[in-house]
Design goal:
The protein is mainly α. It contains 13 helices and 2 strands. It is found in: Cell inner membrane; Cell membrane.
Length: about 290
């Protein structure tokens, strides 16, 4: 029999959801509305007055070569961060699910990086790969490879991808491990008794049963790569060299706060919002069909 909550006071439900509604309006709808409004204007160099230009900021953006290149950079960066962080997290979760002795300490150590802020994660990786003082850069030099992400765009991209993926692995690990522990062991044991190998059991039983968790993490990781990696990029490369690591969210910051081009920055925010919305809808519309709940 279904039990439903009944409130004696008709205003109580509205009071309970009011704080969340207030936070959503102040920190999401109000900034989004301001970005849409400012994207139709160009302020003068002194910020004293603005000029209405309609869609002029958007026309300028899509005719700008550097902005189009930022789209490609964002796509490559997002795919690499999402795939690498989810793959490593799934591998570690499978190992942690099989460990018996010391499993608690093993899982705790894997969770620690999640508590590290993106900017701190960027500084840690910057210290290790500093071309002059970094321990990893020194080890590579001993092997005959001169590492310098300040000059090489490919190395810079590899470094920000590694730092961003490392920061997100712990989050993915927690959900994958919870998903693995929720799978009935009797199903896996029955397949093992029938002679199925470990990999056959994983791809035909475990991985399909993990599809709801994998789909959820796919959406979360794409959004993370688009927005939450700003601190990593800012501390390691600041979008360089030659904008090789300038993703869309960092270009919003660079044009708005460094270049003081607020109209273009607002238009980029609107484009980014629409792009992430489209990606999320596509993921729910097409990829969710392959999820088995």
């Amino acid at each position: 029999m279904e039990k439903r909550v009944v409130f004696d006071n008709r205003w109580l439900p509205y009071l309970l959801v009011a704080p969340q509604l207030l936070v959503t309006i102040v920190f999401f709808f109000w900034p989004a509305g301001q970005a849409i409004y400012q994207s139709a204007f160009i302020p003068d160099p002194f910020g004293l007055k603005t000029q209405f230009v309609g869609l002029g900021n958007f026309e300028y953006l899509f005719s700008n070569q550097y902005y189009r290149e930022a789209f490609l950079t964002t796509g490559v960066f997002s795919v690499l961060v999402t795939v690498s962080s989810m793959s490593f997290a799934l591998w570690l979760a499978v190992l942690a699910d099989r460990v018996i002795k010391g499993s608690g300490a093993y899982r705790t150590l894997l969770i620690w990086p999640y508590a590290v802020a993106p900017a701190i994660a960027g500084v840690l990786w910057l210290f290790m790969f500093n071309p002059f003082t970094g321990i990893i850069a020194w080890m590579l030099s001993q092997l005959g490879y001169a590492w310098n992400h300040n000059l090489d765009g490919g190395e810079a991209m590899a470094l920000v991808v590694a730092a961003s993926a490392w920061k997100q692995i712990s989050y993915n690990f927690l959900f994958f491990l919870a998903g693995l522990q929720a799978i009935p062991k009797s199903v896996i044991e029955a397949a093992a008794i029938d002679g199925a190998s470990f990999w056959r059991r994983f791809w035909t039983i475990v991985f399909p049963l993990l599809s709801p968790t994998t789909f959820f993490l796919l959406v979360v990781n794409v959004i993370y790569a688009f927005f939450d990696t700003f601190g990593v990029i800012h501390t390691i490369t600041q979008g360089g060299p030659q904008q090789s690591t300038t993703i869309l969210v960092y270009k919003v910051f660079a044009d708005g706060f460094i270049g003081q081009d607020l109209g273009s920055s607002a238009a980029q925010s609107v484009v980014l919002l629409v792009l992430v919305t489209i990606l999320t809808v596509v993921q729910f519309r097409f990829i969710e069909r392959r999820v088995h709940y």
